[in-house]
Amino acid sequence: MVDDRTNGVSRRKALAIGGSALSIGIAGCASGTPDDEGDGPVAVASFFTFYDFARQVAEGTSITAKNLVPTGLHGHGWEPDPSIQVDIVDADAFVHVGPDFQPWADRAIQTARDDGADTEYVNARKGIDLINLADTVEEDEQVDQGKDPHFWLDPERAKGSVDNIRDGLSRIAPDEEEQLADNAEAVKEELDVLDEEWQTLADAAERDVAFLAAHNAFEYVGQRYGLTLQPLVKNLAADDDVRPTDMQRAQDTIEANDIRNIGAAIFEPRRPAQQLRDETDVEAYYPVTPYAGTTEEWADQGWGYFDIAREINMNTFRKILEAGEPEDGFDEEWRNFE
C-alpha cells in the first residue's frame, strides 16, 4: 500500500525520511485504502492476529487499524523492505508481538525511537505467562529466555493481548476509551466462546495424538486441551527434502499411532507434507495456520482470527483427531491442497 495522503509530509514521515534515509514507498498491506482512513489516529500492526484484534477493538471509533504484513505471507518469517519504517514512524501506534519475535520490528522500534518519533508502541505480549519452548521448536524462535512466543493460539492467553491493545489504543484516542473498552470486552467474550468450542472438539476426539508436517507452533493448543502434537520439522523455513532422521521419526510416530491424516502449514513450504504422504502411511494432509497471515480469498471474505480458527484450524483438527466431520466441502477443497 502507498500512503498518498495529500495534506503534506507529517512530522513523523519527515523524521523517517530524514533520520533514516529511507524511501517513501511503503511495504505491506492495510485494512483499507487511504481514502477510507479519515482524519483519526492510525494503528499499524506487525502480525495478522494482533492487527485483527486491533481492528475489532477500534470498531466504531476514529482509529484505523492496518496490517503491515502483505497478504499471502507468514508474519513471523517475513523480512520487509526498509521502507516499512515510514509506515511505522508515521503511525500513531505500532502494535507488535514483543521483543525477539520479529527482528525487523525490534529494529524498526529502535530506529523510530532514535529518530524521536512519538509513535505509541503497543506490546501485545506484555504481562502474558508463556510456556517453555518445546524441544521440537528451534531455539531461535524463543523469547524471554527459553519461552514459546505463540501464546495467541490459546484463547485464554489471547485475552491478555486484547487488553494490551485496548490500553495502547486508549492512549492515542483517550476520548474514545469507553468504546474501546466495550469492544475489547466483546472480543474477549468471543475468545471465551472459541475456547469452549476447542474444548468440545478435544473432548470429542478419538485420538489424542496429532501429527503436523510443520514446525510446532501449536504447543499452546496441545497443552490447553490435553492433546499431543508431534511436528515433523523444527525449522519454520524448512523447504528441502526432510532429513532421513526426521522422516524415520515421523514414520515411527505415524505407525505407532495409526495416523492417516496430518496437518500442514498453509504459509510454509508444502514439500514436507507431500514427502510424508508419498513416503509414509499418511493418506492426506489438511491446512493449519498459527494465524500468522491471511490469503487473498480470506481477505476478500473478511475473515479474521475467529473465522480462520473455525473454518480452517478446527476443521482440520476434527479431521486429524477424528473428532467429528468437518464442515461440508472442507474435505473436497483442502485435502492435499497445493
UniProtKB/TrEMBL annotation:
Q: Which UniProt keywords apply?
A: Signal, Transport
**According to the lineage, what is the superkingdom?**
Archaea
**Its Gene Ontology molecular function terms?**
metal ion binding
GO terms (BP aspect): metal ion transport
Can you tell me which family this protein belongs to?
Answer: Belongs to the bacterial solute-binding protein 9 family.
Instruction: Give the protein's recorded name.
Output: Metal ABC transporter substrate-binding protein
Query: What is the species listed in this Swiss-Prot or TrEMBL entry?
Result: Natranaeroarchaeum aerophilus
